[in-house]
Amino acid sequence: MADTMQFDLVAPERMLTSVAATAVTIPGSEGELTAMPGHAPLILTLRPGIVRVEGPKGAASFVVTGGFAEINTNAVSVLAEKAIPVTEVTSSVIDQLVSEAESLAASAPPEEKANSEKLIADTKALKELIRH
Question: Which CATH number goes with the domain that contains 61?
Answer without folding.
Answer: 2.60.15.10
